[in-house]
Amino acid sequence: MKIVGISGSIVGSKTRTAMDKTLQITRGKYPDADVTLVDLAEYKMVFSDGRNYSEYEGDTKVVTETIMAADAIIIGTPTFQASIPATLKNIFDLLPVNAFRDKVVSMLVTAGTAKHYLMAEQQLKPILAYMKAHIVPTYVFIEEKDFHRKEIINDDIHFRLERLVEDTVLLVNAYSDIRQAKDKEYDF
């Protein structure tokens, strides 16, 4: 199983801290999984210009092909102006409309206050649904007060991250079983 974590911003540290913790949990619980972090701060991405993702070069090609090869994607995003950052939106724009078909996508959201907790519901989930993702229904919302010195200090957040990882892997396995059962219905 290929799991890709996306840290969806080029600034700040909270989303990366949360993604690091999430992928640490993933590697601990599922050591056979191929787990990769794509931190957008570490790549030089070009803006989408409408080409097929395979026609891009350099970091843009590496990032898009890594995402397309995943069975599961865990998206970490900060909340900027009550929405997702442009860097993360650009990733969605670079990929085809069916990019997340047969992929499970879960998410964690960081924000300065609780005021933006519905951003994932109103901004991110509609994009993922449009791109045909199997969306993990619950997400982890992490506020400024849950961090101290680049560490998550809220035990409830740790528990919820563990649950997010478990739910993600369980859904990958469930959808895989469903696809296999459907494939057996055909004679070719």
Automatic annotation (TrEMBL):
PANTHER family: FMN REDUCTASE (NADPH). The keyword Oxidoreductase applies. Gene3D superfamilies: 3.40.50.360. This is NAD(P)H-dependent oxidoreductase. Keywords: Flavoprotein, FMN, Oxidoreductase. The lineage of its organism: Bacteria, Bacillati, Bacillota, Bacilli, Bacillales. Pfam families: FMN_red (PF03358). Coiled coil: none annotated. SUPFAM superfamilies: Flavoproteins (SSF52218). The keyword Flavoprotein applies.
